[in-house]
Amino acid sequence: MIKLPLHAVDRFSEVVLNCVSCPRTIDELAGNVASKSDRISIALVKVAEPTSEPWLTLHYDEWMCVLKGRLVLLHGSGESLEVLAGQTVFIEKGERFRPTFPDGATEYIPVCLPAFRPDRCIREEAEGAVSVRLEQLHGGRGGYQQGNVPDADASEVLYHMCLKSLWDEAKTAAAAYFPPTFDADGFTHATAIPSRLLETANHFYQESRLRGKVGTGKSSPESNKY
Length: 226
Known about the structure:
It comes from Symbiodinium necroappetens. By secondary structure, this protein is mostly beta strands. 14% of the residues lie in helices and 35% in strands. It contains four helices and 16 strands. It has helices at 129-138, 164-172, 182-185, 197-204; strands at 2-3, 24-30, 41-47, 51-52, 56-58, 61-68, 70-75, 79-84, 88-91, 96-101, 106-113, 121-123, 158-163, 190-191, 214-219, 224-225. It has a six-stranded mixed β-sheet, with no helix packed on it. Strands 4, 5, 7, 8, 10 and 12 form a six-stranded antiparallel β-sheet that branches. Strands 14-13-15-16 form a four-stranded antiparallel β-sheet. The longest helix has 10 residues, at 129-138. It is elongated.
């Protein structure tokens, strides 16, 4: 397996698939669209002609398993990594990179953990046709939808999704609360709209039932209330 930043690889499995002649197709086999599951997504991507993606930053881990052809990933300060048929590259959450397909005639399987969603894949052409189409496809899935949540009125109150024990510790210390993952991902898990915390709970706190009570904290300049 190749990992960014970069080292060697070999075959991950023997897979034989038939290529459909078209510029590019993405068939989701499991995920938010195909199986209505946010846990993991698996797709088959076929690229018929040379093309490239914009620069991407992922909020999930991704494995790209190349079945046919090759892809070249641009990353860092002018660096690139070639991934050949039979090789797998691992892109860690938070990595900024650009997938390119210099030859076309390429097939690969992307595996995303947690599952791919447009809001978890930051594309540096946010208004492009691909981004719009992805939003349309994923807008049909069940459950929480970011676009269905109203904007907040002017407010100085923030709601936090957190472990109750950590919130209580911050209150006792009269200190600002930051989640344990703040240094790694930069997210405070706070919002002025409580309903948006459903997304936070599904993304960050599914395993918290094993470690303690999860709740919503409310903070304002005047007070800290649980």
